[in-house]
Amino acid sequence: MSETPTSVEPNVPAIDSSIPQEELDRLTDEIVAALKTVYDPEIPVDIYELGLIYKVDIADDRQVAVEMTLTTPNCPSAAELPGMVEGAVASVGGVSGVAVNLTFDPPWDQGRMSEEARLALNLW
């Protein structure tokens, strides 16, 4: 007899990880903290609060995949930001490697910014 996986949120599949939950929580917190150290050189807000990070996946072998975007495809920081993200995430203890994927689907808009970012940029 197979059991149906349970999930806290409806329509969200349960994900089994070989990483102990405590370590997964620590990695997640430290990766977010590392992402918050990366700033778009033209905007005084970190890329996490700007909403430029779309997804972070941590594989069982502790490889981290980051999907991110830029404020615009013509962003002057396009060449340097992905490398800055890779370096920041790679500095987290326990991470075995980092891959950064740049996407423009969906395109970034100001609605992705946190309240903290809106306040810092006076966009109320």
TrEMBL record:
This chain's protein is named FeS assembly SUF system protein
Record InterPro entries: Fe-S_Maturation_MIP18 (IPR052339), FSCA_dom_sf (IPR034904), MIP18-like (IPR002744), SUF_FeS_clus_asmbl-assoc (IPR014291)
Coiled-coil residues are none
| Pfam families per the UniProt record, alphabetical | FeS_assembly_P
Which parts of this chain are annotated as the region Disordered? 1-20
Where does the MIP18 family-like domain lie? 29-100
> Which chain regions cross the lipid bilayer?
none
